[in-house]
Design brief:
Four copies of one chain form a homotetramer. By secondary structure, chain A is α/β, with parallel strands linked by helices. The first copy, chain A, has a seven-stranded mixed beta sheet. The longest helix of chain A is centred in the middle third of the chain and has 15 residues. The two termini of chain A are about 35 Å apart.
Chain lengths: ~350, ~350, ~350, ~350
C-alpha cells in the first residue's frame, strides 16, 4: 500500500482527494493536514466521511510528513508549497502539488501573475507539468509534479491536437470558460455566498486571470512558438463543472478551402482515441458538464463554421476531479507505476 | 458473472442502476430495456455513459429476457410488472421490482391508492419487501423482491427502532418529507420544467400520497398493530436527496419522565450499529442530503423536545440510490449470496 | 414626503427596504446606515441600485438620525435596537424595528431564547407587534413597532383563524418550515456558501429556534391560553421564500364528526377575505413560494385528512418582503395614515 | 386607458407582459389569448396572478381581437404572426410582435434560418425593428414593431457604440452568450426538465442559432457594411438572465496604439448616457445578470486587453424583460406617445 499525506485536506480539492483515495485499492491516507481544523475529526468537517474516515486533522508539517508517507499531495494556497520545499523532502517522498507553484517554467511570469515571490525556483525546472495525456512519460519519472489548473486542463486538452498539428491560427485563439462555484474554494467570502451566486452569472478576472499564462505556455510548447490568447472565466450557479468554448480561425488548405469535419475529427482521434479519460464526442453531440460530473473524463467536440472560417471547440470536465484531485491521482498512479486509471474508473453521475 | 437485465433502463432509477451495475464486479448488464428508445444507443440517451456502455436499447420483453439473464430489474410504471409476471418467468430468473406492484400485501389497499387493478395478486404473498436492514433473511431466499419506495425507505428506517421498541405513540406520528426532483421521473411534464421547480418549494399529494400506506404497513409490522400517519411530501429544487422530519410523542416512563438522549441513542444503536448503510449521526449533528449524495447511506438522528414531550427524528438518503437503484443492488447481492455491500461502497460526493 | 432612515441598509432585509422604498411614492430615503460600508457608495454594495441610488453609506447613529427623518427602520442584529433606544428618539421619530428586540412581551423569555440581556425593557410594553392583519388598529397609533419575524409571520397567519376560532387542538400543533437562504443573512459564513447550500436540504435549530416563542406568544393570544408547539426550520437551496406545513388535530363537533372543507374555508374567509395581502387559495391549490416571490402576499390553504382527523395547513410568503421589508413598509403606511398597500402592490415575479 | 390584447399570454414572455401591464397605469389587458388554455382562468395557469387577474383565457383570433383593442402583443411561435397579418388588422390596431417574423429585412435570410415560408413578406419593410435605443424615432411612428430577440438585444447594445464608431474590426467579432432557462420557453420538453438543466452547462445551436443573422443585420447597419460573426449561446441553470461576452480586435490609432479606457468609455457614454435603460458600469465593475433581474436595464462594460489588442465587451439583461416583454412595453409606450419608461421603472430584485 502506498502511504499518502494530504496538506490542505479540508478544501474542496483536498476533500475530493480523500473521496478518491478512500476508494483507491493501493493507497491509504496517513495524514489529513489542515491548519484550520487541527485536532478536529475529519468527518466533522466533511459529514459525508462519517464512518468512512476516522482520522483527525493534523498540522501541515511537510518535513515530518515526508518521513511517514510515500507521496504528498499539496492542495494549498499559492506559495505554500514553494516556501517549504527542500532537497530533504524531495529525497524522501514524491510530491504532487495542486497549487500553481511549479506549473510555470518562467519564474518571472509566475511572480508577475501571482504577485508573490517564488521561494524555491531551483525546483521549477525539474517539476513536471502533470497533464498526463501530454506529459505521461515525464510524469512516470518525476518526483515533483505540478498538477495543472482546472481551467487550464480543460482549455489545453480541448485545443491541443489542433494547435499541435498547426490547424488553427493560434493568434486568433479565444477561450471563454464557465465554471461551477467549487472552483472558488471553501473560504467564507461574501461573493461566494449562496444568494450571491445563485440565479446569477458573471465574468471575472477578465484579461487578468492567472490561468492565462499557464495555458499560453503549454499550448506554446505544442505550437512550437509563443502564443497569446484571451481567456475569460465566468462563475456559474452550479457546484461542479467547467465548460470551455474556444474560438480560432482554421488554417486553410493551399486551395483556400477549410479542413472538413472528418479531417479535424481524425486529428482529435489521433491524439485521443487511446486516451481513456478524453472522450471525443460523436458528431453534433456537444459537451455538457453534467455528463462528466464526479468522473475523471474530459469530453471534447468541435463545430466548423463555414461562414466565418472559424472552428468552435468545446470541452467539459469536473473541475474537482480531472481539474484537480482526479488528475492528481492519475499523476500519482503514473509516478508509482500503477495502472493509470486505478481508482479513477468512476462512472459520471446523472442527474 | 451474474447476467442482469433492466426494464425501464432510461428512467432516472434505471440510469442509476446502469451506473451502479457498471461498477459492480460480479455483474454484467445484458439487456437495456426501454420502450421509448428501442434501437437507440444507450449512451445517446445518457451522455455520461459514452464509451462506457456500447449497447443499444431493447424492448421490454420479459419472457425473452427471462431466458437470457439471472436477474431482472423492473424500473417501470406501476402495473407493468404485475401485468407481465407469470410462473415461467419466476422459475427462470430472480426479479427485483422497483415499482410498487408487490410492496403492499393487501391488494385492496394497493388498488385503492394506485387506482389500478392488480393483474397478478397471486404473487403478492411470496414477494419479499426488500428493505434489507429489516427483512435481510427473507430477501436472501426470495425470487421476487418488492424494492421499497424512496420516501418509504427513508421514513421507515428513521422511525423503525423507536416504533419497534414502543418508544413513541404511533398515533401521533407525522412524516414531513422533502425530495429532490429526480423523484418525479424523466417524463416531459410541465410541472417538472426547470423554471417551474427552481427557486420554488411546494407540498403535493397532501393526505393522499401513495407511499403513505406502504409506510403504514411496514411500521405497522414493527409496532405489532395497525397505524395511521400523516405523510406530506414536498418538491425541493435539487436533483437528488430526500430528507424526512418525523414528529411523535415519546412514551413516558412509569414515573412520567421522558427517555433520555442516551436511552434513545442506545435503541438506534441496537438496530443500526452493525448496519453499514445506516449511519446514526453523533449528537446534535443533523442529517443533510448532501452528505449522502451518490451513496447508499441513510443518515439518521433525532432530537428530544423536553418542552412538548415529542421527539423529532430526521433521516436523509439519496432517493436514486438507497431510495431506488442502490437498494435494488443491495437486494440483488443478498439474493445471490454476494457480499451485501458489493458495488455499493461509493463514498458520497461533496460538494 | 416622509423622510426615512435605515440602519442596517446593506443586509438583505435592508436592501429590500431600499428596493421597496425607492418605488414608494410617499417616501424618500435620507440615510443609508451601514457600519460595514461607511463612506462607500450604496450602489457599489448592491449593484442593482446603480444609477438608482446615488447615496453613500453612513454610520448607525440613531440619535443624529432621529433628528433628520420621520421614520427609522432598524434592520440590525438582535440587541442593537434595544441598546440605543431612549425617550428622546421615540419623541422625535417613529421606529419600525425589524429585529426581535421588542417582539416578545415577557423579557425573560426573550433573554432566555436570545441569550442576551435586554437593554431597554421599559419600551417592550408600548411596542406594538406589527402583524398588520391582526394588530392593524394598534399599529396605526404606535410609535414603536416590532416587525415580526419571517417564519413567524408565515406560521401565525397560516394557523390564526383556526386557532382563534378554537377549531384545532393547539396542543397538537406542529410547524414544519422551509426557508430560502436569504433568511440566513449576508454574513460571510461557511455554512451559507453556495456549494454548502446548493443541492442540499437540512433541518436546523430543531426544538430551539428563536422564532418558536414568538409564534407561541402570538398564537397564544389568539387561543386565549398559553400554547406550546414544535417548530422546525429547514434550509432550502433557493434565494427567497418560506413555506410552512402545519399539522394539528381538528376539534370534532359534538357528534364526533370533523368540520367540512366548506366550514374551514368559511373561517379562513372570515378573517382574510378583505385582506389584500393574504390570499386563501382555491380548493386543492397548494401554496408555492414561487407564486409570491417579490411580493407582499401570503398564500394559505389547507387539507383535511379524514383518516387521521388532522388538518394540514400550508402558507407561503417571500421572507424578504412580507417576512421582513414589505411588512415593515406596510406598518409604516399604517403608522403614517397612508394607504396600507402603498408601494407594496408588486405583482409576484414568475419564473 | 390603452386597451391591450396578448396572443400567447401563457408562455413565459406572455406571462411577463401580464406582470408588466398589470402594473402599468395607462393600460388595461382586455384579451388573454392562449390556445392551450381556452376558457381556463388565467390565474389557474399562473398562480402568481391569483386575485390579480380574474380573466379567462381566450382563443387567438386576431381579427376579432383587432376590433376590441388598441394594441396587440403577439408572443407566439415563429410564423404565426406572419400567417395572420393583413391590412385590415394593421388599419385597426398597433402590433408589437415578439416573434421573429418581421425582424429580418431579407426574407430569404429569414426563410433560410427559420426553415419556414414567410406568409406576409409585404409587411416586412414597414415593420420597425423595435430596439428603442437605436430606432426610437421610427418606433414612434410605427404600426407594426418587430420586437428584438433576447440574445439579440443584449448582443447588439453591448457592441453598438464601438461598431457604429468604427472602433473594432467587425470581422473579428465573437459573441459568447449565456442564458437562463426561461429563454427556452414553457414547452414540456425533456431537455428543459429540472434535472437535465440543473448543475449543468452546455452550448447549443453552435454556428447555427437563429439570432445570428438578426445580430449581423442590425450591427451591419451600424457598421455601414455587411458583417459576419460567431454567436454561441449556452444554457445556464438559472431562471432569468442573459450575459454576453464579446470579443473583437480594437482598431488601432494611426500611431499603432490602442484606444484608452477613457476613449472607449467616452464612446459608450456618447450613446448611452441619456438612455435610462442602458447602464454603462463604472470601471472594473463587471455586469452580473442578478443586478438587472426583474428590470428593464441592460448593464454593459468592457475591458481592454493590452496584450492581445482585443476588447472584451460584456452585457447583461433580464431576457424576459428587456429581452422580451419589457422591451415590448417600451415600444408600446413610444408608439402611443407615453413616457418611454412608463410601467418599466422596476428596481431590480436582489437576491
Amino acid at each position: 500500500m502506498i502511504k499518502a499525506g494530504i496538506i490542505g485536506a479540508t478544501g474542496y480539492a483536498g476533500g475530493e482527494l480523500v473521496r478518491l483515495l478512500t476508494q483507491h485499492k493501493e493507497v491509504e491516507i496517513k495524514w489529513y493536514g489542515s491548519r484550520s481544523y487541527i485536532d478536529k475529526k475529519y468527518a466533522s468537517v466533511y459529514g459525508n466521511m462519517f464512518e468512512i474516515v476516522e482520522d483527525t486533522c493534523l498540522d501541515d508539517n511537510m518535513e515530518e510528513l515526508a518521513k511517514q508517507v510515500d507521496v504528498i499531495f499539496t492542495a494549498t494556497p499559492q506559495g505554500f508549497c514553494a516556501s517549504v520545499m527542500n532537497d530533504e523532502i524531495l529525497d524522501q517522498v514524491k510530491i504532487v502539488d495542486l497549487s500553481a507553484d511549479y506549473r510555470i517554467k518562467d519564474v518571472s511570469v509566475y511572480e508577475k501573475w501571482y504577485g508573490i515571490e517564488h521561494k524555491s525556483p531551483q525546483y521549477i525546472e525539474e517539476a513536471v507539468y502533470g497533464l498526463c495525456e501530454i506529459n505521461r512519460e515525464d510524469v512516470k519519472k518525476a518526483r515533483l509534479v505540478a498538477n495543472p489548473g482546472c481551467y487550464t486542463t480543460c482549455s489545453i486538452l480541448t485545443a491541443y491536437p489542433l494547435v499541435k498539428e498547426g490547424l488553427i491560427d493560434t493568434a486568433t485563439l479565444i477561450v471563454d470558460a464557465k465554471s461551477g462555484t467549487s472552483g472558488a474554494g471553501r473560504g467564507a467570502k461574501l461573493p461566494n455566498l449562496y444568494c450571491e451566486v445563485n440565479e446569477n452569472i458573471k465574468a471575472y478576472g477578465v484579461a487578468s486571470h492567472r490561468h492565462t499564462p499557464e495555458i499560453e505556455e503549454q499550448l506554446g510548447y505544442a505550437a512550437g512558438k509563443e502564443i497569446m490568447i484571451n481567456f475569460t472565466p465566468h462563475l456559474v450557479p452550479m457546484n461542479r463543472g467547467i465548460l470551455v468554448t474556444e474560438y480560432a480561425t482554421l488554417t486553410r488548405k493551399p486551395d483556400g478551402s477549410l479542413p472538413t469535419y472528418e479531417e479535424i475529427k481524425a486529428v482529435y482521434d489521433k491524439y485521443y482515441k487511446d486516451e481513456k479519460f478524453v472522450r471525443v464526442l460523436e458528431k453534433d453531440v456537444l459537451p455538457e458538464t453534467k455528463w462528466v460530473e464526479g468522473s475523471n473524463y474530459v469530453d471534447v467536440n468541435f463545430k466548423i463554421d463555414e461562414r466565418t472560417g472559424r472552428i468552435i471547440m468545446m470541452g467539459a470536465l469536473d473541475n474537482v476531479v480531472k481539474g484537480a484531485a482526479g488528475q492528481a491521482v492519475q499523476n500519482m498512479n503514473l509516478m508509482f507505476g500503477l495502472k493509470e486509471s486505478e481508482g479513477l474508473e468512476l462512472v459520471p453521475m446523472f442527474p
